[in-house]
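Proteins fold reproducibly. Consider a sample protein:
=====
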Amino acid sequence: MTETISKIEKGERINEEEALHLLQEEDFLVLGQLTQERLLKFHPPDKVSFCIDRNINYTNICESKCRFCAFYRLKEDSEAYVLSADDISEKVEEAASLGATQIMLQGGLNPDLKIEYYEHILKKIKDKFNVFIHSLSPPEICHISKVSRLSIKEVLVRLKDAGLDSLPGGGAEMLVDRVRHEISPNKINTEKWLAVMETAHAIGFESTATMMMGSIETAAERIEHLKKIRDLQDRTGGFRSFIPWTFSSGNTELGGKELSSIEYLRTLAVSRIYLDNVKNIQGSWVTQGKDIGQISLFFGANDLGSIMLEENVVKAAGAQNRITENEMVELIKRAGKNPVQRNTEYCVVKIY
């Protein structure tokens, strides 16, 4: 692997075979060291960013019934709900008062919610609050398209006009249809996820990309996922960040043994090296805990996401890590880094 290491040190692109070898065979500490070579291409090594946001889950009613999800409910379930525009407005107001710059609306694929529901909410938020709305993942966009009888582009244009600012990368899970068929057979396939993102980028949206690892995928399938992200980024340049996170098996139909933190860090490191066209790589303290979140800063992450004033989906599967702004700042400082609060577009809001 001397040739591969030389390519990384020179800033050259590696291929899928080399990425897989790094993931499976390279020495753990060497892998961490190699991420610093890539990190320097985009960022000073001592700066780590995070933002303050709120994830508002507007409904838990979902017809997708993904086997890895503990959050969804059927319409007839006693715990099923749909938030009104007023409910959501109250949550946004509270978040804004606590310093949030970003609002993420995420919910189930509820067959009763057409595009007018989302337009009303978006307009109400934008009329009242100065926040960035980073919301509605590709499966939600496709669902709105289906129930509203509109094209993907028509949905995106209307939501943009109503106040949507960018799209999160949710629903990617693993962009390999073999895996998707097993863990989320009723959700959109790989081609549709990528098509939504390409359409969104074409009309001026930026977005994030994600990967849920540790369900049933192979190491080679993780690299296949990364290839699809890198290829689309080559075409559009629309992904502002990549966020790999680990499957939490608690309370889910899928169950199974969860991925080790070492394997998470190895995959994070390879993501930084392989995705040479994505500027920001996010470490996941939410699923991995604060300590591993801190270590992720030495395996390719330059960002720790958000302090997340509210989060319910991962929490439903048993991962209940929480953090305050002060705790996040101290976490970064104890790693020998300088914490910076950012907004969704990675512009500096505050230096500590």
Observations:
- Strands lie at 47-51, 53-57, 102-106, 132-133, 207-213, 239-246, 280-281, 303-306, 338-342, 348-351.
